[in-house]
Amino acid sequence: MKKLLRNQLFWASLVLIVLVxxxxxxxxxxxxxxxxxxxxGPIIDLFIFVPPxxxxxVGMTLVIATSGIDLSVGSVMAVAGAVSMxxxxxxxxxxxxxxxxxxxxxxxxxxxxxxxxxxxxVSVIKLQPFITTLIMMLAGRGIANMITGxxxxxxxxxxxxxxxxxxxxxxxxxxxxxxxxxxxxxLLVRKTALGMSIEAVGINPRAAEMAGxxxxxxxxxxxxxxxxxxxVAGVFSVAYIGTVEVSSSGTGSGMxxxxxxxxxxxxxxxxxxxxxLAGTTLGAFIITALNQVVVYLGVSSAAVPAFKxxxxxxxxxxxxxxxxxxxSRPDLGxxxxxxxxxSDKAKVVAA
Length: 351
Description:
Blueprint: H1 2-5, H2 8-25, E1 33-35, E2 38-40, H3 42-65, H4 73-90, H5 97-123, H6 129-148, E3 153-154, H7 158-165, E4 167-168, E5 171-172, H8 173-190, H9 194-203, H10 205-210, H11 215-241, E6 243-244, H12 255-265, H13 277-296, H14 304-318, H15 321-327, H16 330-350
Antiparallel strand pairs: 1-2, 3-6, 4-5
Helix pairs in contact: 2-13, 3-8, 3-11, 3-12, 3-13, 4-5, 4-6, 4-11, 5-6, 5-11, 7-8, 7-11, 9-11, 12-13
């Protein structure tokens, strides 16, 4: 039991259960229903809205594991979404699967290019990740405005929108795609030496170099992957609403902070050197559930940041080493041992 209480993911799971319970108590519909060939309900809503956060959080996890940070993921989402929507707007047949596929590929290429540019500045030019990605964050929003001419672009493509709005066997397509991408990333970093190399670079890049790890290549790769996953998140976001909002409060706005919070809640240290993708996935679900709780509780928009901050501070306190230390105090173990000894003594006396 003490081992379970010292596990960070146990407390994060407990918070997620509480948040989901709050959503269910404030929702009149069934937790999971079935209508018109689709699974519906607040639980399914969680699966619909989690893919964008999950995608950028996975990329952010790998970047943070190298002791870096990627503040540009929200803007890369906007750029990728702008490219795909603008292509569909100018396409003669935007509702065909071919046009939707090209729009997705263009978005992925642009997102990958943005990530490679950040990776080049960090790994080759040796700029600090915070400065590099901050520049990309500011530039990305401007690039998205340039692509769409400063206007929100609506692609009006049912084939493209199916990526987020469609269902397979009742389940949201976006969630199934995000789950498949997550599994690919997990296999990539846990079944090859890439994950160990990322952690080695995060702990000590110089020592990693001496051990034969090309730290520059690893850094370039993780930023490129982060950009690519941010583009996937952008496709999910614009495909759900069928348009891209290029304003500073539009597509991808504030998503970089949600991604960082999901990573922290999942137990990955901001100091780098260690990462936990299962924890990040749990963190992404918590952030999504928290966004739903804010709506159901009727928290005013002005108070939403403070409300979310309080909940996240509470989660971080539960996961702190000091709190875990309380559950591993020797007296607790002695207390258990004493109870066991007393029980044995009572059995002997009774005999």
